[in-house]
Amino acid sequence: MLHLRKPSAALTVSPSALVLLAAFLLLSRGLTLPAALLSAALCHELAHVLTLHALHTPPRRLTLSATGAELYVPDLHRLSYGGELLAVAAGPGCNLLLWALLSLTGWPPLAPFAGAHLILGALNLLPVRPMDGGRLLWLLTALCTEPYTADRVAYAVGAVASAALLVLCLYLTLTTGAGLFLLPGVLWLAVKGVLPNGAKPDKINCYKK
Q1: How do residues 63-108 score in pLDDT, each as one tens digit?
Q2: Which of 39, 109, 120, 133 has its CA at 20 to 30 Å from residue 103's CA atom?
Q3: Distance between CA atoms of residues 96 and 116, nearest Å
Q4: Which residues have CB under 8 Å from 40's CB, separation 6+?
Q5: pTM metric for this prediction
């Protein structure tokens, strides 16, 4: 693994992330789409990091892998449900805001960047546990009820949502072949959606109080 360290934070890039990036670059026609998706992902993670810093709970490590990004936040347990909701929503919220702003310009060269922000923001709002949307669902339910009920609701909704995505992806793959590229990611989401919640309390991705 590649480790880039700073006094207060560290970046860890797994080999799987590098392989995925290389494959994506080889399969893409030109650099516009990779640049759009990478810039959207960068804005997403920066929004999480800056919000956590504003809440005085700075992350200590960012791990990048083929399955996404994960922030290690040792003081995450100090946040209230409201603070954690703000930190989690910052990522997809930033993407959707930038999508709206870029779309308003009406400039064609910015269309791929606007689309990348929309896709990433919407994808992260899916109510499946590895995504920001799954965590937002858990936090909102726990805020209104208690953690045990939140676990059960998040598990049930995540299982249904991931199963529906898998059926849709299989249908597209069999009928048009369009879902083949998405199938590995959807299978991963489906497995994550039905496994028991074993998340650690210091991770911004799939974490639990």
Answers
A1: 988 778 889 999 888 999 999 999 999 999 999 999 999 999 999 9
A2: 133
A3: 10
A4: 95, 98, 113, 116, 117, 119, 120
A5: 0.85
